[in-house]
Amino acid sequence: MSNEIGSQFCRNTKYERDKLPRQPLNLRTKPPAYKVYENSKQIRLPAPQTQQGPGLWQLLNQRRSVRKFSGKAMSKEELSQILWAIQGVTEPGVPAYGEVIGLRTAPSAGGLYPVETYLGINNVTGIEPGMYHYCIEKGTLELINKGDYGEALARAALDQGMLAEGNVVIIWTAIFERSKWKYRQRAFRYVFLDAGHIAQNLALAVEGLGLGSCQVAAFFDDEVNHLLQIDGENESAIYLSVIGHKKKK
Fold this sequence. Notes:
Blueprint: H1 5-12, E1 42-44, H2 56-62, H3 76-87, E2 89-96, E3 99-104, E4 115-121, E5 130-135, E6 140-146, H4 150-156, H5 162-165, E7 168-175, H6 177-183, H7 187-208, E8 212-216, H8 221-228, E9 235-244
Antiparallel strand pairs: 1-6, 2-3, 4-5, 4-7, 5-6, 7-9, 8-9
């Protein structure tokens, strides 16, 4: 068992007293805080509602994984609210590591934010089906490719048909170097923890809107990477979530 890669990783990335890695941070080699598709079509989203809403304890009690969806269209307003909840900027203009960043709704180790959000949109009013990137800095969607990606995402997720039936599939990727720049190999621990924080924000926000979600960790990594047109090395898919209107029992 000790030779298994997971066990090796946990053992080799442990922090031990008096053996912490110490290296100067080179600001010249720091990856950019934001990924932007400069030449893509930009879709502006409605401003999110940040006041009132249902209580946290109620949402925690009600949250369940939902795997059956009604097919009713989701609104732009609902989508905007969810995206803000998972990675929206709550405090802009914060100096960090020689640049200015925005603090977000979900925590990130060292404020490095390695996780990117993509969307496979199946059925949202006023937005064409296709693959999109969420531009956190601007609060917009960036079109990567038009088309129906629901069936392809379902196949890539071990044939889980709910990804084709939901309104939107959220795809989280990691740009690993953002965290490795500071934390070296231990960064991989932090990347997956970051994704977990973000996914919980999504689950609670979706419940607050009366919608449903199911988080998906079982998928063929390179098939999802291919759909996103990313290399799977410097940036790779790490987590999925399908969201939509719940099907009545």
